[in-house]
Amino acid sequence: MVDEKEENPSSKAGPKATSPAGFWVRLVAVVIDSLILMLLSNVVGQLLGKLGFPGNIVELPKDPKELIVFQSIFGLIISAFISFFYFGWFYSNKGGSPGKLIFSLKVVDNETREYIGYWRAFLREYFCKIISTIILFIGFIMAGLRSDKRALHDMITGTQVVQDKD
Fold first, then answer.
1. Which of 7, 109, 122, 134 has the least CB density, counted as fewest CB within 10 Å?
2. Residue 103 bridge partners (DSSP)
3. Residues 16-72 pLDDT 10s
């Protein structure tokens, strides 16, 4: 687990009165965030393309199959970069992403109840959710079956999604 004190020295206190957030409201929040991230990634990709990036830095492959692979890898890098700042900023400053905030959901440290920082947010949203997906979505389904409503990615990163009652 990431040492949050080192990661986010100006850690912000999380909400005072909370209850675990349910599976369905979390699912809707994820769909909203996914739509926002797709839009952001598309806009950034289009802007970079108009600027000639990355063709003005590296020679693009001539073979169409190699070009598709190159563009896919480049897209993943851009997506990871956007996700890092999107989730990192919102989680460390607001306690949740826009999709979660619509429903008063916050992602907090499971023990201290403080907001999490950039690196833990990125680890949770980008890598641990891939694990939750690879195992046939069982990592997500766990949130609907457990009394504390924690999914696999919450347990790996020491977080919990809560509904703010303040």
1. 134
2. none
3. 778 999 999 999 999 999 999 999 999 998 898 888 887 777 788 889 899 899 888
At 149 the three-state DSSP class reads coil
How does pLDDT run across 123-164, given as a tens digit for each residue? 999 999 999 999 999 999 999 999 999 999 999 999 999 999
Q: Where are the alpha helices (DSSP H) in the chain?
A: 4-7, 23-50, 64-93, 98-102, 118-122, 129-134, 138-145, 152-157
Amino acid at 18: T
Instruction: Report the predicted TM-score, pTM, of the whole model to 2 decimal places.
Output: 0.85
Asked if 106 and 18 touch (Cβ cutoff 8 Å), the reply is yes
Task: Please list, in sequence order, all residues whose beta carbon lies within 8 angstroms of the beta carbon of residue 7, skipping any fewer than 6 positions away.
Answer: 117, 118, 119, 120
What are the sequence ranges of the domains in the chain?
A: 14-164
Token digits of residue 104 = 């008063």
Rounded distance between C-alpha atoms, residue 18 and residue 164, angstroms: 5
